[in-house]
Write a structure and sequence with these properties.
Layout (H helix, E strand, L loop, with lengths): L33 E6 L7 E6 L2 E6 L19 E3 L5 E3 L11 H31 L6 H29 L1 H21 L3 H29 L5 H22 L9 H8 L1 H11 L6 H6 L3 H12 L4 H10 L20 H16 L2 H14 L5 H26 L1 H24 L7 H18 L3 H10 L5 H33 L1
Antiparallel strand pairs: 1-2, 2-3, 4-5
Helix pairs in contact: 1-2, 1-4, 1-5, 1-6, 1-7, 1-12, 2-3, 2-4, 2-17, 3-4, 3-6, 3-7, 4-5, 4-16, 4-17, 5-13, 5-16, 11-16, 11-17, 12-13, 12-15, 12-17, 13-14, 13-15, 14-15
Family: Belongs to the major facilitator superfamily. Sugar transporter (TC 2.A.1.1) family.
Pfam families: Sugar_tr
Organism: Mikania micrantha (bitter vine)
Protein backbone atom coordinates (compact mmCIF):
# COMPACT_ATOMS: atom_id res chain seq x y z
CA UNK A 1 0.00 0.00 0.00
CA UNK A 2 1.23 3.48 -0.82
CA UNK A 3 2.86 5.29 2.07
CA UNK A 4 1.36 8.56 3.18
CA UNK A 5 3.41 11.67 3.77
CA UNK A 6 2.06 13.28 6.91
CA UNK A 7 3.14 16.89 7.20
CA UNK A 8 1.28 20.00 8.25
CA UNK A 9 -2.03 18.52 7.17
CA UNK A 10 -1.66 15.15 8.85
CA UNK A 11 -0.02 13.67 11.95
CA UNK A 12 3.14 15.08 13.44
CA UNK A 13 4.79 13.44 16.44
CA UNK A 14 7.42 15.57 18.01
CA UNK A 15 9.33 15.24 21.29
CA UNK A 16 7.23 12.22 22.11
CA UNK A 17 4.28 14.28 23.29
CA UNK A 18 2.46 16.04 20.49
CA UNK A 19 -0.12 14.58 18.18
CA UNK A 20 -2.46 16.32 15.75
CA UNK A 21 -5.52 14.49 14.49
CA UNK A 22 -5.94 13.61 10.87
CA UNK A 23 -6.97 16.42 8.57
CA UNK A 24 -10.24 16.45 6.70
CA UNK A 25 -8.69 14.81 3.65
CA UNK A 26 -8.54 11.49 5.57
CA UNK A 27 -12.27 11.50 6.31
CA UNK A 28 -14.54 9.26 4.30
CA UNK A 29 -17.98 10.80 3.83
CA UNK A 30 -19.57 7.36 4.09
CA UNK A 31 -17.81 6.40 7.29
CA UNK A 32 -18.95 7.04 10.81
CA UNK A 33 -15.66 6.97 12.64
CA UNK A 34 -11.93 6.87 12.13
CA UNK A 35 -9.77 4.47 14.13
CA UNK A 36 -6.06 5.01 14.70
CA UNK A 37 -3.88 2.06 15.68
CA UNK A 38 -0.24 1.13 16.16
CA UNK A 39 2.15 -1.54 14.99
CA UNK A 40 5.88 -2.24 14.73
CA UNK A 41 8.03 -0.16 12.44
CA UNK A 42 11.80 0.12 12.14
CA UNK A 43 11.74 3.92 11.84
CA UNK A 44 11.04 4.64 15.51
CA UNK A 45 9.60 1.49 17.04
CA UNK A 46 6.01 2.39 16.15
CA UNK A 47 3.95 2.71 13.04
CA UNK A 48 0.58 4.34 12.65
CA UNK A 49 -2.30 2.93 10.64
CA UNK A 50 -5.66 4.50 10.00
CA UNK A 51 -8.98 3.03 9.00
CA UNK A 52 -11.97 5.18 8.05
CA UNK A 53 -14.96 3.02 7.22
CA UNK A 54 -13.62 0.50 4.69
CA UNK A 55 -10.42 2.42 3.85
CA UNK A 56 -7.01 1.70 5.38
CA UNK A 57 -3.86 3.78 5.23
CA UNK A 58 -0.49 2.36 6.19
CA UNK A 59 2.25 1.74 6.91
CA UNK A 60 2.77 5.37 7.81
CA UNK A 61 6.14 6.95 8.35
CA UNK A 62 6.37 9.08 11.45
CA UNK A 63 8.46 12.16 11.77
CA UNK A 64 10.16 12.46 15.17
CA UNK A 65 11.66 15.71 16.47
CA UNK A 66 15.28 16.03 17.44
CA UNK A 67 16.39 14.52 20.70
CA UNK A 68 13.57 12.01 20.93
CA UNK A 69 13.09 8.42 19.88
CA UNK A 70 9.62 7.97 21.34
CA UNK A 71 6.48 8.12 19.20
CA UNK A 72 3.00 8.97 20.49
CA UNK A 73 -0.21 7.64 19.09
CA UNK A 74 -3.79 8.66 19.05
CA UNK A 75 -6.29 6.34 20.66
CA UNK A 76 -9.62 5.72 19.02
CA UNK A 77 -11.94 8.65 19.55
CA UNK A 78 -15.65 9.17 19.67
CA UNK A 79 -17.88 10.00 16.77
CA UNK A 80 -17.83 13.70 15.89
CA UNK A 81 -20.85 15.81 15.09
CA UNK A 82 -20.02 18.40 12.45
CA UNK A 83 -20.96 22.01 13.17
CA UNK A 84 -21.87 24.50 10.47
CA UNK A 85 -18.48 26.18 10.43
CA UNK A 86 -16.36 23.07 10.56
CA UNK A 87 -16.36 22.72 14.35
CA UNK A 88 -16.87 19.27 15.79
CA UNK A 89 -18.34 18.33 19.11
CA UNK A 90 -17.49 15.08 20.85
CA UNK A 91 -20.53 12.94 21.42
CA UNK A 92 -19.03 10.81 24.15
CA UNK A 93 -15.79 10.87 26.03
CA UNK A 94 -14.01 7.58 26.58
CA UNK A 95 -12.01 8.57 29.65
CA UNK A 96 -12.56 10.56 32.80
CA UNK A 97 -10.69 13.67 33.79
CA UNK A 98 -8.22 13.40 36.64
CA UNK A 99 -7.90 17.18 36.94
CA UNK A 100 -10.50 19.70 38.06
CA UNK A 101 -11.79 22.82 36.38
CA UNK A 102 -13.91 23.89 39.35
CA UNK A 103 -11.29 26.09 41.09
CA UNK A 104 -10.69 28.01 37.88
CA UNK A 105 -14.41 28.33 37.16
CA UNK A 106 -14.69 29.75 40.67
CA UNK A 107 -11.96 32.32 40.01
CA UNK A 108 -13.63 33.43 36.77
CA UNK A 109 -16.96 33.64 38.59
CA UNK A 110 -15.57 36.47 40.71
CA UNK A 111 -16.09 38.57 37.58
CA UNK A 112 -19.74 37.49 37.55
CA UNK A 113 -20.10 38.40 41.24
CA UNK A 114 -18.75 41.88 40.49
CA UNK A 115 -21.12 42.11 37.54
CA UNK A 116 -24.10 41.52 39.84
CA UNK A 117 -22.77 43.54 42.76
CA UNK A 118 -22.17 46.71 40.77
CA UNK A 119 -25.62 46.38 39.21
CA UNK A 120 -27.35 45.98 42.55
CA UNK A 121 -25.28 48.20 44.86
CA UNK A 122 -26.99 51.40 43.72
CA UNK A 123 -30.43 49.95 44.53
CA UNK A 124 -30.26 50.63 48.25
CA UNK A 125 -27.42 53.19 48.27
CA UNK A 126 -28.82 55.74 45.79
CA UNK A 127 -31.02 57.62 48.24
CA UNK A 128 -28.24 57.94 50.83
CA UNK A 129 -25.41 58.86 48.48
CA UNK A 130 -27.70 61.42 46.83
CA UNK A 131 -28.20 63.15 50.19
CA UNK A 132 -24.49 62.95 51.01
CA UNK A 133 -23.47 64.43 47.65
CA UNK A 134 -26.17 67.10 47.71
CA UNK A 135 -28.27 65.86 44.77
CA UNK A 136 -31.29 64.54 46.66
CA UNK A 137 -33.60 66.80 44.66
CA UNK A 138 -31.85 66.31 41.33
CA UNK A 139 -33.40 63.28 39.63
CA UNK A 140 -31.36 63.80 36.47
CA UNK A 141 -28.00 63.45 38.23
CA UNK A 142 -29.27 60.46 40.18
CA UNK A 143 -30.27 58.86 36.89
CA UNK A 144 -26.79 59.50 35.51
CA UNK A 145 -25.16 57.83 38.50
CA UNK A 146 -27.24 54.74 37.74
CA UNK A 147 -26.92 54.75 33.95
CA UNK A 148 -23.24 55.75 33.66
CA UNK A 149 -22.37 52.26 34.83
CA UNK A 150 -24.37 50.88 31.92
CA UNK A 151 -22.75 53.23 29.42
CA UNK A 152 -19.34 52.04 30.57
CA UNK A 153 -20.50 48.43 30.41
CA UNK A 154 -21.57 48.93 26.78
CA UNK A 155 -18.06 50.11 25.90
CA UNK A 156 -16.47 47.33 27.94
CA UNK A 157 -18.55 44.55 26.38
CA UNK A 158 -17.44 45.48 22.86
CA UNK A 159 -13.83 45.89 24.01
CA UNK A 160 -13.76 42.57 25.87
CA UNK A 161 -14.08 40.43 22.74
CA UNK A 162 -11.16 42.11 20.97
CA UNK A 163 -8.97 41.97 24.07
CA UNK A 164 -9.76 38.29 24.59
CA UNK A 165 -8.79 37.50 21.00
CA UNK A 166 -5.63 39.59 21.12
CA UNK A 167 -4.17 38.85 24.56
CA UNK A 168 -5.98 35.71 25.67
CA UNK A 169 -8.66 35.12 28.28
CA UNK A 170 -6.59 35.21 31.48
CA UNK A 171 -4.63 38.35 30.55
CA UNK A 172 -7.89 40.09 29.70
CA UNK A 173 -9.14 39.25 33.19
CA UNK A 174 -5.98 40.84 34.63
CA UNK A 175 -6.57 43.99 32.58
CA UNK A 176 -10.20 43.98 33.63
CA UNK A 177 -9.28 44.10 37.32
CA UNK A 178 -7.78 47.60 36.85
CA UNK A 179 -10.99 49.57 36.05
CA UNK A 180 -12.95 47.43 38.52
CA UNK A 181 -10.60 48.26 41.40
CA UNK A 182 -10.06 51.94 40.52
CA UNK A 183 -13.78 52.44 39.92
CA UNK A 184 -14.67 50.96 43.31
CA UNK A 185 -12.12 53.20 45.04
CA UNK A 186 -13.40 56.38 43.34
CA UNK A 187 -17.03 55.58 44.18
CA UNK A 188 -16.21 54.85 47.82
CA UNK A 189 -14.23 58.07 48.29
CA UNK A 190 -16.29 60.42 46.10
CA UNK A 191 -17.01 63.85 47.55
CA UNK A 192 -18.79 65.17 44.46
CA UNK A 193 -20.97 63.94 41.65
CA UNK A 194 -18.20 64.14 39.04
CA UNK A 195 -15.96 61.70 40.90
CA UNK A 196 -18.86 59.33 41.50
CA UNK A 197 -19.80 59.32 37.82
CA UNK A 198 -16.18 58.67 36.75
CA UNK A 199 -15.96 55.82 39.25
CA UNK A 200 -19.21 54.32 38.00
CA UNK A 201 -18.03 54.66 34.40
CA UNK A 202 -14.79 52.77 35.14
CA UNK A 203 -16.65 50.08 37.09
CA UNK A 204 -19.05 49.81 34.16
CA UNK A 205 -16.20 49.25 31.71
CA UNK A 206 -14.92 46.54 34.03
CA UNK A 207 -18.22 44.66 34.33
CA UNK A 208 -18.77 45.03 30.58
CA UNK A 209 -15.51 43.23 29.89
CA UNK A 210 -16.40 40.62 32.51
CA UNK A 211 -19.80 40.03 30.94
CA UNK A 212 -18.06 39.09 27.68
CA UNK A 213 -15.17 36.96 28.92
CA UNK A 214 -16.57 35.13 31.97
CA UNK A 215 -19.04 32.94 30.03
CA UNK A 216 -16.52 32.58 27.20
CA UNK A 217 -13.72 31.36 29.49
CA UNK A 218 -15.97 29.03 31.48
CA UNK A 219 -17.37 27.51 28.30
CA UNK A 220 -13.92 26.91 26.83
CA UNK A 221 -12.45 25.19 29.89
CA UNK A 222 -15.52 23.14 30.85
CA UNK A 223 -15.83 19.44 29.91
CA UNK A 224 -18.57 18.86 27.36
CA UNK A 225 -20.68 16.63 29.60
CA UNK A 226 -21.13 19.33 32.28
CA UNK A 227 -20.77 22.47 30.19
CA UNK A 228 -24.43 23.39 30.65
CA UNK A 229 -24.24 23.17 34.42
CA UNK A 230 -20.95 25.06 34.69
CA UNK A 231 -22.09 27.62 32.15
CA UNK A 232 -25.13 28.47 34.24
CA UNK A 233 -22.81 29.16 37.18
CA UNK A 234 -22.09 32.51 35.51
CA UNK A 235 -25.68 33.63 35.99
CA UNK A 236 -25.80 32.08 39.47
CA UNK A 237 -22.87 34.19 40.63
CA UNK A 238 -24.36 37.30 39.02
CA UNK A 239 -27.43 36.66 41.17
CA UNK A 240 -25.23 36.10 44.22
CA UNK A 241 -23.54 39.43 43.50
CA UNK A 242 -26.90 41.21 43.30
CA UNK A 243 -28.03 39.53 46.53
CA UNK A 244 -24.77 40.49 48.25
CA UNK A 245 -25.30 44.13 47.24
CA UNK A 246 -28.87 44.12 48.58
CA UNK A 247 -27.82 42.48 51.84
CA UNK A 248 -24.91 44.91 52.15
CA UNK A 249 -27.46 47.73 52.18
CA UNK A 250 -29.24 46.53 55.32
CA UNK A 251 -27.08 48.67 57.73
CA UNK A 252 -27.99 51.85 55.81
CA UNK A 253 -31.03 52.53 57.99
CA UNK A 254 -28.84 53.00 61.06
CA UNK A 255 -25.72 54.32 59.33
CA UNK A 256 -26.39 56.67 56.37
CA UNK A 257 -22.68 56.77 55.45
CA UNK A 258 -22.55 53.01 55.05
CA UNK A 259 -23.00 53.45 51.29
CA UNK A 260 -19.26 54.23 51.00
CA UNK A 261 -18.40 50.88 52.58
CA UNK A 262 -20.78 49.17 50.16
CA UNK A 263 -18.78 50.48 47.18
CA UNK A 264 -15.43 49.80 48.87
CA UNK A 265 -16.36 46.13 49.40
CA UNK A 266 -16.38 45.58 45.63
CA UNK A 267 -12.63 46.18 45.45
CA UNK A 268 -11.97 42.92 47.32
CA UNK A 269 -13.27 40.52 44.62
CA UNK A 270 -11.48 42.64 41.99
CA UNK A 271 -8.11 42.06 43.65
CA UNK A 272 -8.87 38.37 44.22
CA UNK A 273 -9.81 38.02 40.54
CA UNK A 274 -6.44 39.43 39.47
CA UNK A 275 -4.53 37.20 41.89
CA UNK A 276 -6.50 34.11 40.89
CA UNK A 277 -5.98 34.65 37.18
CA UNK A 278 -2.21 34.79 37.61
CA UNK A 279 -2.28 31.07 38.48
CA UNK A 280 -5.22 30.01 36.27
CA UNK A 281 -4.55 28.19 32.99
CA UNK A 282 -5.25 29.90 29.70
CA UNK A 283 -8.04 28.56 27.51
CA UNK A 284 -6.62 25.56 25.56
CA UNK A 285 -8.90 26.49 22.68
CA UNK A 286 -7.35 29.96 22.37
CA UNK A 287 -3.81 28.59 22.74
CA UNK A 288 -4.35 26.14 19.90
CA UNK A 289 -5.75 28.96 17.77
CA UNK A 290 -2.52 30.86 18.45
CA UNK A 291 -0.40 27.77 17.58
CA UNK A 292 0.94 27.64 21.15
CA UNK A 293 0.76 23.87 21.32
CA UNK A 294 3.12 23.31 24.25
CA UNK A 295 1.20 25.77 26.39
CA UNK A 296 -2.10 24.22 25.33
CA UNK A 297 -0.92 20.78 26.45
CA UNK A 298 0.18 22.20 29.80
CA UNK A 299 -3.20 23.89 30.29
CA UNK A 300 -5.03 20.65 29.46
CA UNK A 301 -2.95 18.74 32.02
CA UNK A 302 -3.86 21.32 34.65
CA UNK A 303 -7.56 21.28 33.81
CA UNK A 304 -8.21 17.61 33.02
CA UNK A 305 -5.12 15.61 33.93
CA UNK A 306 -2.37 13.92 31.90
CA UNK A 307 -4.68 11.23 30.55
CA UNK A 308 -6.81 13.70 28.60
CA UNK A 309 -4.05 15.54 26.73
CA UNK A 310 -4.11 13.42 23.55
CA UNK A 311 -7.90 13.28 23.42
CA UNK A 312 -8.51 16.99 23.97
CA UNK A 313 -5.71 18.06 21.63
CA UNK A 314 -7.16 15.80 18.96
CA UNK A 315 -10.62 17.27 19.53
CA UNK A 316 -9.37 20.85 19.27
CA UNK A 317 -7.32 20.28 16.13
CA UNK A 318 -10.07 18.25 14.46
CA UNK A 319 -12.66 20.93 15.23
CA UNK A 320 -10.64 23.45 13.24
CA UNK A 321 -9.29 25.40 16.18
CA UNK A 322 -5.81 25.22 14.73
CA UNK A 323 -6.86 25.94 11.15
CA UNK A 324 -5.30 28.64 9.05
CA UNK A 325 -8.58 30.57 8.85
CA UNK A 326 -8.10 33.84 10.70
CA UNK A 327 -10.37 35.19 13.41
CA UNK A 328 -13.31 37.08 12.00
CA UNK A 329 -13.42 40.86 11.96
CA UNK A 330 -16.37 42.89 13.21
CA UNK A 331 -17.84 43.32 9.72
CA UNK A 332 -17.68 39.56 9.16
CA UNK A 333 -20.39 39.16 11.80
CA UNK A 334 -22.86 40.79 9.43
CA UNK A 335 -21.96 38.67 6.41
CA UNK A 336 -24.46 36.17 5.01
CA UNK A 337 -22.38 33.39 6.55
CA UNK A 338 -22.90 34.49 10.16
CA UNK A 339 -25.67 37.11 10.22
CA UNK A 340 -28.49 34.71 11.11
CA UNK A 341 -26.80 33.12 14.12
CA UNK A 342 -25.45 36.48 15.35
CA UNK A 343 -28.98 37.91 15.10
CA UNK A 344 -30.28 35.08 17.27
CA UNK A 345 -27.64 35.82 19.93
CA UNK A 346 -28.41 39.54 19.94
CA UNK A 347 -32.17 38.91 20.03
CA UNK A 348 -31.84 36.72 23.12
CA UNK A 349 -30.41 39.63 25.10
CA UNK A 350 -32.77 42.14 23.50
CA UNK A 351 -35.86 40.28 24.73
CA UNK A 352 -34.19 39.50 28.05
CA UNK A 353 -33.89 43.23 28.78
CA UNK A 354 -37.19 44.30 27.20
CA UNK A 355 -38.93 41.91 29.60
CA UNK A 356 -38.42 44.54 32.32
CA UNK A 357 -35.70 43.15 34.58
CA UNK A 358 -34.20 46.66 34.88
CA UNK A 359 -37.01 47.83 37.15
CA UNK A 360 -36.34 45.03 39.64
CA UNK A 361 -32.54 45.17 39.67
CA UNK A 362 -32.18 48.94 40.04
CA UNK A 363 -35.35 50.20 41.71
CA UNK A 364 -37.12 47.41 43.58
CA UNK A 365 -36.44 49.16 46.90
CA UNK A 366 -38.12 52.35 45.66
CA UNK A 367 -41.00 50.42 44.11
CA UNK A 368 -41.67 48.58 47.38
CA UNK A 369 -41.50 51.85 49.28
CA UNK A 370 -44.10 53.30 46.91
CA UNK A 371 -46.31 50.26 47.48
CA UNK A 372 -46.16 50.87 51.23
CA UNK A 373 -43.93 47.96 52.19
CA UNK A 374 -42.51 48.65 55.66
CA UNK A 375 -39.11 47.03 55.18
CA UNK A 376 -38.36 47.88 51.56
CA UNK A 377 -34.65 46.95 51.68
CA UNK A 378 -35.43 43.58 53.28
CA UNK A 379 -38.06 42.93 50.60
CA UNK A 380 -35.43 43.64 47.93
CA UNK A 381 -33.09 41.20 49.65
CA UNK A 382 -35.87 38.60 49.45
CA UNK A 383 -36.08 39.26 45.72
CA UNK A 384 -32.34 38.71 45.43
CA UNK A 385 -32.63 35.44 47.32
CA UNK A 386 -35.37 34.29 44.93
CA UNK A 387 -33.02 35.10 42.05
CA UNK A 388 -30.29 32.89 43.50
CA UNK A 389 -32.71 30.07 44.31
CA UNK A 390 -34.21 30.06 40.82
CA UNK A 391 -30.79 30.04 39.18
CA UNK A 392 -29.73 27.06 41.29
CA UNK A 393 -32.80 25.18 40.04
CA UNK A 394 -31.97 26.18 36.47
CA UNK A 395 -28.43 24.86 36.88
CA UNK A 396 -29.72 21.42 37.78
CA UNK A 397 -32.17 21.41 34.84
CA UNK A 398 -29.96 22.94 32.17
CA UNK A 399 -28.50 19.69 30.84
CA UNK A 400 -31.71 17.70 31.42
CA UNK A 401 -34.54 19.85 30.06
CA UNK A 402 -32.64 21.79 27.44
CA UNK A 403 -32.23 25.50 26.81
CA UNK A 404 -35.36 26.06 24.71
CA UNK A 405 -37.87 24.61 27.17
CA UNK A 406 -36.41 26.66 30.02
CA UNK A 407 -36.71 29.85 27.95
CA UNK A 408 -40.38 29.17 27.13
CA UNK A 409 -41.20 28.43 30.79
CA UNK A 410 -39.26 31.47 31.96
CA UNK A 411 -40.85 34.07 29.69
CA UNK A 412 -44.35 32.68 30.33
CA UNK A 413 -43.86 32.94 34.10
CA UNK A 414 -42.47 36.46 33.78
CA UNK A 415 -45.53 37.60 31.81
CA UNK A 416 -47.99 36.23 34.38
CA UNK A 417 -46.11 37.62 37.38
CA UNK A 418 -45.80 41.09 35.77
CA UNK A 419 -49.55 40.99 35.17
CA UNK A 420 -50.07 40.35 38.88
CA UNK A 421 -47.69 43.19 39.77
CA UNK A 422 -49.45 45.70 37.51
CA UNK A 423 -52.90 44.69 38.74
CA UNK A 424 -51.82 45.24 42.35
CA UNK A 425 -51.09 48.90 41.52
CA UNK A 426 -54.06 49.65 39.23
CA UNK A 427 -57.09 47.86 40.68
CA UNK A 428 -58.52 49.94 43.50
CA UNK A 429 -60.20 46.92 45.06
CA UNK A 430 -56.73 45.47 45.65
CA UNK A 431 -55.30 48.69 47.09
CA UNK A 432 -55.23 47.38 50.71
CA UNK A 433 -53.15 44.43 49.54
CA UNK A 434 -50.92 46.27 47.09
CA UNK A 435 -47.80 45.90 49.26
CA UNK A 436 -47.86 42.11 49.70
CA UNK A 437 -49.04 41.58 46.11
CA UNK A 438 -46.21 43.76 44.79
CA UNK A 439 -43.65 41.70 46.71
CA UNK A 440 -45.23 38.38 45.63
CA UNK A 441 -45.44 39.46 41.98
CA UNK A 442 -41.86 40.70 41.97
CA UNK A 443 -40.53 37.56 43.65
CA UNK A 444 -42.37 35.33 41.16
CA UNK A 445 -41.11 37.47 38.29
CA UNK A 446 -37.50 37.19 39.40
CA UNK A 447 -37.90 33.47 40.06
CA UNK A 448 -39.26 32.99 36.53
CA UNK A 449 -36.48 35.13 35.07
CA UNK A 450 -33.79 33.12 36.83
CA UNK A 451 -35.15 29.83 35.48
CA UNK A 452 -34.32 30.64 31.87
CA UNK A 453 -34.21 34.20 30.58
CA UNK A 454 -31.36 35.01 32.98
CA UNK A 455 -28.90 32.10 32.63
CA UNK A 456 -29.66 30.69 29.17
CA UNK A 457 -28.53 33.53 26.83
CA UNK A 458 -24.99 33.83 28.22
CA UNK A 459 -24.66 30.03 28.27
CA UNK A 460 -26.04 29.57 24.77
CA UNK A 461 -23.87 32.15 23.00
CA UNK A 462 -20.53 30.28 23.14
CA UNK A 463 -22.35 27.13 22.05
CA UNK A 464 -24.00 28.51 18.91
CA UNK A 465 -21.14 30.66 17.59
CA UNK A 466 -18.39 29.22 15.41
CA UNK A 467 -14.81 29.36 16.67
CA UNK A 468 -13.55 32.24 14.56
CA UNK A 469 -16.41 34.58 15.50
CA UNK A 470 -17.04 33.40 19.07
CA UNK A 471 -15.36 36.16 21.11
CA UNK A 472 -16.58 39.06 18.97
CA UNK A 473 -20.08 37.64 18.51
CA UNK A 474 -20.46 37.17 22.27
CA UNK A 475 -19.27 40.75 22.78
CA UNK A 476 -21.72 42.09 20.19
CA UNK A 477 -24.66 40.23 21.73
CA UNK A 478 -23.77 41.48 25.20
CA UNK A 479 -23.39 44.96 23.74
CA UNK A 480 -27.06 44.73 22.80
CA UNK A 481 -27.77 43.82 26.43
CA UNK A 482 -26.03 46.93 27.75
CA UNK A 483 -27.46 49.32 25.14
CA UNK A 484 -31.02 48.28 25.98
CA UNK A 485 -30.19 48.25 29.68
CA UNK A 486 -28.84 51.81 29.46
CA UNK A 487 -32.00 53.13 27.81
CA UNK A 488 -34.32 51.13 30.01
CA UNK A 489 -32.79 52.27 33.30
CA UNK A 490 -33.44 55.93 32.53
CA UNK A 491 -37.00 55.23 31.40
CA UNK A 492 -37.73 53.29 34.59
CA UNK A 493 -36.29 56.10 36.70
CA UNK A 494 -38.49 58.71 35.02
CA UNK A 495 -41.62 56.59 35.37
CA UNK A 496 -40.84 55.92 39.03
CA UNK A 497 -40.36 59.60 39.78
CA UNK A 498 -43.64 60.49 38.04
CA UNK A 499 -45.40 57.83 40.11
CA UNK A 500 -43.90 59.16 43.35
CA UNK A 501 -44.93 62.74 42.53
CA UNK A 502 -48.50 61.67 41.67
CA UNK A 503 -48.65 59.58 44.85
Amino acid sequence: MQAINLGANGFLVQNGSRVFSASSRFKNKNSTACVIGTGKDTSCGLRLWSRCGGLEFGPVGVRVGAGSSVCSYVKSRSVKAQASDGDTTPVKSQSKSSGSVLPYVGVASLGAILFGYHLGVVNGALEYLAKDLGIAENAVLQGWIVSTLLAGATVGSFTGGSLADQFGRTKTFLLDAIPLTVGAFLCATATNVQTMIIGRLLAGIGIGISSAIVPLYISEISPTEIRGTLGSINQLFICIGILAALVAGLPLASNPLWWRTMFAISAIPSVLLALGMTISPESPRWLVQQKKIDQAEKAIKTLYGDGKVVEVMADLSASGQGSEEQDAGWFDLFSSRYFKVVSVGAALFLFQQLAGINAVVYYSTSVFRTAGVASDVAASALVGAANVFGTMIASSLMDKKGRKSLLITSFSGMALSMLLLSVSFTWKVLAPYSGPLAVIGTVLYVLSFSLGAGPVPALLLPEIFASRIRAKAVALSLGMHWVVDFDGSNEVKLLLLINLEEG
